[in-house]
Amino acid sequence: DGHSHLSAYERKRLKNITENAKFFAALKLHKVSARLNQIATKTQPHGTKRPRPKKVEDETAPRRSMRLLRVEPSEIPAPETPAQPGPEEYPQVPAGPVPMVPEDQMGDSKWTEALLSTWMRISELKADDADRGTPDMERYREGLSSMVLSEENVRKVVKSRVCSMAIHPSESTILVAAGDKWGHVGLWNVSCGSEEGAHIFIPHNLQVSCMHFSPCNPAHLLSLSNDTLRCGDVTRAVFDEICRSEESFSSFDFLEDSASTAIVGHWDGDVAVVDRRTPRTSSELSADIGFRKTRTVHVHPMNKQYFLAAGLVDVCIFDVRYLKPKGNKPVSSLTGHTKSVASAYFSPGTGNRVVTVCADDRLRVYDTTSLSSTITVLSSIRHNSNTGRWLTRFRAIWDPKQEHCFVVGSMAQPRQINVFQDTGKLLHSFHNLDCLSSVCSINVVHPSQNILVGGNSSGRLHVF
């Protein structure tokens, strides 16, 4: 074979090379390679050729709903109707007096007249001052245990989240007012026991953050929104405008029993003094108290010159007699808060206690018998205050009938409302598995009767 001089290994290697060459030649790969080389070297265009657009007449026009386009039928004309507001869009409440007409009043107003006449009638009655002493703790606890919640005492009174409540001091009729985040004020005659006992009014544009019946004339219901303070006068069936401001209001309280003047807190930290007797709707004095935010203000029940202000981590007592536009110093500071404070209130009889709710999950009670420069904590109670963005923040309120006990909402299961003693002891929990399944952030207690009302984030009130 001409390769005899090669070794056996080299001859075998050469044989394999020859056989492989014959195999690849049979596959004709040279033709494929030439075709690939031709394709690779072919000049490519710089851009991508776009498909030719279809002619307009060739396309089928999509079918569109005339109802959704708000196009009236060509043959049958429809009557003109004004555009209805969306679920969260309500007509703006104008400045000045607003008539006391319910939002849901349709035609016959006899139920509304019955509600307002009841409010007027019970406001003329004077409460009996007999047996106004603070009950002992055991008798008070028995009274709490006797309070129950039934299905007929649960009602949706306002449309949205309850931000404030007030209860009429009448001992014969239970009349509750609630304010929600959209400026609605709901009135509910609980004693009526019928579906027509509740009506909604719209005296404000924004959330109603604070409400009080006048201590000297409960025919007046004062309500505070972000931009205005109004007085609902049932004798004249009107919501009068007391004060209006471009700065956002947060809370208010009366500086005297006649309810002629009030201290008003602002969300930007300032406070203002308002006199209802003046014809103008501006405040008498605006004072910078050094807060970045003022959530609640509360006047001392005995010494009306002192008021309590709660802001972010600041809780201080000021003397209204020495307020000035700038450079105000507190009489006392209540220290110990590490996060935002939601509320702070004096005890109802003597003002010797203050209870605060803080975002650090603590309820704190202070001894304010002596107003020294710095007041330390008397008791601290672990309490979950993480309500989140969809619930109104908790406010701990004192029971007007008991100097040493306060009421606060709870995140615990089953849903409940707690009553604590100022020592930190849990006295009682209001709950009902059948009728109470939500968190009651805002609560109010009747000044003389064993009645508690809790409001939730859907506008529903629960009356124990």
From TrEMBL:
| Pfam families documented for this protein | WD40
An example GO CC term for this entry is: nucleus
Q: Which InterPro entries match?
A: WD40/YVTN_repeat-like_dom_sf, WD40_repeat_dom_sf, WD40_rpt, WD_repeat_DNA-damage-binding
Region feature (Disordered)? 39-66
> Which keywords belong to this entry?
Repeat, WD repeat
How is the quaternary structure described? Interacts with CUL4A and/or CUL4B.
Q: Which PANTHER family did the record assign?
A: WD REPEAT-CONTAINING PROTEIN 76
Name of protein: WD repeat-containing protein 76
Q: Which organism is it from?
A: Scytalopus superciliaris
Its gene name is: Wdr76
